[in-house]
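Think of the structure tokens as a kind of shorthand, similar to the way a musician reads notation: each symbol stands for something richer, in this case the local conformation of the backbone. In the example below we present two proteins back to back. Begin with the first one, reading the sequence and then the tokens, and try to describe in your own words what changes along the chain.
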Amino acid sequence: MKRIAVLLADDHQIVREGIRSLLGDELDIEVVGEAANGRQAVQLTRKLRPAVVVMDIAMPLLNGLEATRQICRAFPETRVLILSAHEDEAYVQQAIRLGAAGFLLKQTSSQLLAQAIREVQQGNTFFNPIISRRVHHHDQKAAERNGKLQRKSHRLSSHEMEVPQLIAEGSLQKRR
């Protein structure tokens, strides 16, 4: 039996260790690497080519949403599953737009996480029940509008999206 290769991306070591331990009981899932920030998640995806990346949103150096965008663009065979404490609809919708295959809340059970990994690896989407209801509601509202209120999307480069985050983290200093 081929195991599902999983990369964990979370800035909290204890969270990564806990998830690794919980997934260690799953015979068909193998954690192949861990990333402590978004940049490292992109680099390790390039190196390890996992089937699934379990990605936190709030991470230093490169947040999980931008890391998701980069991974989905560069490695379309790798599926990204967001695992976050942030349940705001804006985060969920942005994660979906950027290519995430699923969204789970950190309050979820290890069984649900394992099920989600299996589902997204097979090409399906997977959402926490509360998130799923929101996504369904959002999709219904969009269908009712019949596409008439579509906004223009202005795409920013990866670097342009990193700048506000670095400023917020105090990493960019005034250049002279």
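Once you have a description of the first chain, move to the second and do the same.
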Amino acid sequence: MQIIEITDTSSKETEAYFHLTDAQMRSKQEPEKGIFIAEGPKVVGTALAEGYWPLSILIRRKFLETQQGMDLLEKAGDVPVFTADDDVLAALTGFRLQRSWILSAMHRQPERKQEDVLAGARRVAVLEGITEPSNVGSIFRSAAALGVDAILLSPTCCDPYHRRSVRVCMGSLFRIPWARTDSNLAVPELKRQGFACIGLALEKESIPLDDPRFLNLPRAALFLGTEDTGLTQDTIACMDHLAVIPMEEGIDSLNVGCAAAVAFWQFRTR
């Protein structure tokens, strides 16, 4: 383990923590060559446990000296470990640090194919055009907690490895299978594999989420649309059913992350 004291942000080795944007850390042509930032003991520990390979670690000195901190560094293997006192790190980052402050720059894993993540799945979430990283992270966290087996993302969804998404999902991104998919191809393939395609949408023909027709479906794919306009009309036209969450008068919708959690609970396999 190589422990390196830092006093500024100018070194090439630490630029991912201080200077690179999420877009710069992502490699569109070869995603597996991109990197991302994991933040916090739980997220870093889960990524390591799920086989993600760290490039380096940036850790608060006081946390480095704890047993929990040392255990995380041992799991990370022989990678550079950058550290500094609180005053230095606060000056570099612009905020005071939490007690167990740790970041890790990590390699992305190769993206999976749609057919691979669907194998054996009973409950699938399909995200269409969701662009807010916090919403994507929240949906991954709810999906992992409430029995969703896989997630498909349209080309217009934000990057799940976005720093804010990784932070919000609390490690769920590393545990639940997911893949990018062309929205036009997702529906036919899901139906071919026996999934009932259900769109969450505010349409006249939508039926309540707790309708008996949704009970005990062998395989179900729940489609969730963009924060502003919801699912596209093309996608709505392809659905087997449209569903809506029953609400009090005067309220017609929830944030997509909250709506996803409600729907995942209703569609969980018993």
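Compare your description with these statements about the second chain. The chain has two domains: 2-107, 114-267.
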